Amino acid sequence: TIQGYIASIDTLTNELVLTNERRTDRLVIGLNELYAIE
């Protein structure tokens, strides 16, 4: 499970930035995968 909240989504590079109390994680994912989660 991904903990934290979405800080930003860059649709050009498909970069999803998640921020939590400990650190900031940068995940590069496809937009199709992102929409599939919804």
Automatic annotation (TrEMBL):
Name of this protein: YolD-like family protein
Upper lineage: Bacteria, Bacillati, Bacillota, Bacilli, Bacillales
